């Protein structure tokens, strides 16, 4: 079994986390990005780079120093602005093929991202050293993919799973039903560790995936209980009682996941939306 290294997060420095993988973390730490966006470099001869990160000159320089002329693929898990903007500059500097899927702009997409190849679910990218399998995992956003390094059973999770916090689901391109389905899908793959785009490696991946599914379903139960009591309300009114275990400073962010929960319940026939107000119609 592969020995993974739980290395400290160091901005702009390559850190070896397994025999085939190095991590370089951008300096864009914050509430939504944790310690910063992780870029993963896979391989030693021909290289794949996963999530080039924001348009950060120090990050781009660090990645070019590691990859040089050996970079074959620049892979983007999804097109949020902390994941893909550096891709075009790396492509221009190295000639490496730019891979990713685009989606309609909801005001939160990197509209400058222009892939040369789009992924298909279960598509494999292989060299003499490694095999990377693309796994469609919509939910956080509709064009999200994870990538499984089959040789080490290491899953690069992008924003599908983050270390230390739950992922925000942002409609209209984010979907709670899709997110839960995508989590369950991962249980079908042999995975020894998770490499998130934000934070440290996560071990016991099946237990972590089960925990996330249970957390989302428990939150849905809480949404239902609050809606049964309130009967109706706006997102701003419903968020505080549903997320009373979350610091109020984070409620504007939590509101998006609440919206995603309510859209799921609307499809389930439990709530209706009229002119920005949500109404309980379930039993």
Which SSEs are present, and which pair or pack?
Layout: E1 15-18, E2 21-25, E3 38-42, E4 47-50, H1 57-67, E5 71-75, H2 87-94, E6 97-99, E7 124-126, E8 131-136, E9 145-149, E10 154-158, H3 176-186, E11 193-196, E12 202-203, H4 205-230, E13 232-233, H5 235-242, H6 251-267, E14 271-274, E15 277-280
Parallel strand pairs: 4-5, 5-6, 10-11
Antiparallel strand pairs: 1-2, 2-3, 3-4, 7-8, 8-9, 9-10, 11-12, 13-15, 14-15
Could you characterize what this model shows?
- The structure is a single chain.
- The protein has 283 residues and is an alpha+beta fold.
- The protein has six helices and 15 strands.
- It has helices at residues 57-67, 87-94, 176-186, 205-230, 235-242, 251-267, and strands at residues 15-18, 21-25, 38-42, 47-50, 71-75, 97-99, 124-126, 131-136, 145-149, 154-158, 193-196, 202-203, 232-233, 271-274, 277-280.
- The strands form three sheets. It has a six-stranded mixed β-sheet, covered by helices on one side. Strands 7-8-9-10-11-12 form a six-stranded mixed β-sheet, with no helix packed on it.
- Strand 14 and strand 15 (277-280) form a beta hairpin.
- The mean pLDDT is 96.
Low-confidence stretches: none
What's the helical proportion of residues? 25-40%
Q: Count the beta strands.
A: 15
Mean pLDDT: 96
Shape by Cα distribution: elongated
Estimate the strand proportion. 15-25%
Main sheet record: 6 strands, mixed
How is the largest sheet built, in terms of strand order?
Answer: 1-2-3-4-5-6
Distance between termini? 51 Å
Query: Would you list the SSEs in sequence order as H and E?
Result: EEEEHEHEEEEEHEEHEHHEE
Give me the secondary-structure category. Answer: alpha+beta
The tally of helices reads 6
Radius of gyration, taken over Cα atoms and rounded to an integer in Å: 19 Å
